[in-house]
Amino acid sequence: MTQSDLGKAVGTSGDTIGKYERDEIQPSINTAAKITDSLNLTIDFLVTDGGDQNINNDALKRLKLLEKLTPKDKDQNRALMDAFFAKHKVDSLLQ
Description:
Shape: elongated
Number of domains: 2
Helix content: 55-70%
CATH class of the largest domain: Mainly Alpha
Order of helices and strands: HHHHHH
Strand content: under 5%
Structural class: mainly alpha
Distance between the termini: 31 Å
Largest sheet: none
Radius of gyration: 18 Å
CATH architecture of the largest domain: Orthogonal Bundle
Number of strands: 0
């Protein structure tokens, strides 16, 4: 995505996005939220320059939904995810 594309998506200009990237100016919290939504990131990822946070908004929303499940459903979900992770690991070893 270009700076111009991102600027249009958040209601500003590509030049302004460039200034944010160069730390010449700071976006408002509303603009920062629009930027993270447009890039499918979390606010903390944006504010901490990525840091160790690699969870996008979609994954974060799903994690929050998981917390609302019953303990039994959480266990079943973990087992399902573990099976997919194991399959991925085996697949990557076979390549």
